[in-house]
User: What shape does this take?
Amino acid sequence: MRPEPIDEDLDRESSGKLRGKVAIVTGGDSGIGRSVALLFAREGADVCIVYLEEHDDARETAARIEKLGRKAILRAGDVGDPEFCESCVNQTIETLGRIDILVNNAGEQDEISGVEDMTPEKVERTFKTNIFGFLYLTRAVVPHLREGAAIINTTSIQAYDPSYHLMDYACTKAAILNFTRSLAKELAPKKIRVNAVAPGPIWTPLIPASFPAEHLKTFGKKTLFQRPGQPAEVAPSYLFLAAQSESSFITGEVIHVNGGQAMPG
Assistant: This one.
């Protein structure tokens, strides 16, 4: 990518907000997921990075986590497969000893021309990754979570201000919003918090992979800052929601990181 995304604030000093914690981050090989995994490690967490097939990117993320003095394990596979989700949880427990934080972040998007362009295969693939994967991995993780644990789901500005050329993707992001709020009600008695982050236009590898070059020239120009955000500008929201010391009385909520492009009520 040119320019390269900014995925880490190298001047940030750790305050140990996640010291001794273990996190699973899906889509952790690049983009927002990588930035979240690196920030969690900087704050003291060991991380299981779940990704589809970008092995080189995942290995780079793991190496950077280990350079920060934390442990990283890699799990490559399809989160839309419930058996794979179970295996991710089992390996995390076996290798890292516990699970405190789940970040459901893996996602797929493909630009379409409109509703007639939504083939069954494309729609099923998008839903399988973007919402079924969240459901399957959460189902596998919840029995292992303790009081004070956190689940953070990546929804999107598309859940609030959908684009017709991302119709199926936007539908999954709206489903994630509903999933977050209903799961928060279920897990509150166990003192497990469930929240979401709704990024706007963020400069990640997903963007040039999803849109033609012409679209990239104006990407992010609708924000009040007239630019896209960087992954490193999104990750602190996940840290805030993950840290019991910061957000112990927050559940069922969404943090909007969109440069003022949309201001949901």
